[in-house]
Fold this protein.
Amino acid sequence: MEGEKYAKELDVAVRVVHMACSLCQRLQQGIVSAGSDLVKSKEDDSPVTVADWSVQATVSWILSEFFGSQNVSIIAEEDVQTLSKADSASLLEAVVNTVNECLAGAPKYGLKSPPKALNTSQVLEAISRCNSVGGPKGRHWVLDPVDGTLGFVRGDQYAVALALVEDGKVVIGVLGCPNYPMKKELLSYHYQYHETMSRLSPPSDDMWERGCVMYAKRGSGEAWMQPPIPGDKKFVWPNSARLVQVSSIDDPKLATCCEPVEKANSDHSFTAGLAHSVGLRNQPLRVYSMVKYAAIARGDAELFMKFARTGYKEKIWDHAAGVVIVEEAGGVVTDAGGRPLDFSKGPYLEGLDRGIVVCSGATLHEKIIDAVYASWDSSNL
């Protein structure tokens, strides 16, 4: 890692995402089994949990300590509005405790812990510091602390996504998928099945790789995947990293398409019509969050299309980390007009042509883009 551009940034980002995944795994178990006051609704009715704020505070604190707070600009999803309300006192206390517990374990990942526990105002400050609006110049970290919060609270898939954007271009991306197993054959089982089985008979280390962390650096032509850090073991670079590559399938009849689970923000009917028109036959892989990017980067699926409903604007934190990982693994990501996504306009993907198309390769991508043009003209969207 030494001597390469963005080496330090990537190193710290991978370590802090591993930390965040561990934090989320612990919290998800509690939320799924107890339900609870740890979940709130935001103004747009989307859920937010103790994990969202805790991850944001942890990542913000680590990046600011490592690179100096004056040098760190972070664009992230959460603010402290809900957390600061009078009826959120117990939630805020849970966030502060979770952040301190997580930061106390930082040495396991080769990172520094704070000299003493952070107080409430320091935790709120770390969350609030993630208020950058980005833009075409300078360096901006882009964080989605828990992408797919609905999946998270339902005991299903979700992701922790961290990217670095420099002068409007995504230069590194790290995607933590705590419930997305290293081995594809384990995908057909819900992770809770493996949790139950592991209590009955402890699995071998390689079997029990429930999650994964994927990462890539712009221009390297490589995307990597690491297993989680089990038990009391310490993170030692490169932590059994293995290269991942997109699938070589370019025939739509053989391709598998990822789809969002929720219908709220995307047009499933147009996507279904498009899938039919290009001859997709396989059952779609429906997963929450940026796990869809992970699936394509490592060859579990070949295609992901998202066409937002009218009025919905795509946010950069929902795509930045996934885009660079898929592209460096050999895939193609554009809007539906075939243009690269523009991360230089602030928190939203402004100027997006109809939707987003993520493919395992250029040949399949060309067929899908052609089909989009043909289908769009005949649709009433």
Q: What stands out?
A: Confidence is low (pLDDT under 50) at residues 189-208. Residues 252-380 form a domain with the D-Maltodextrin-Binding Protein; domain 2 fold (CATH 3.40.190.80). The two ends are 48 Å apart (CA to CA).
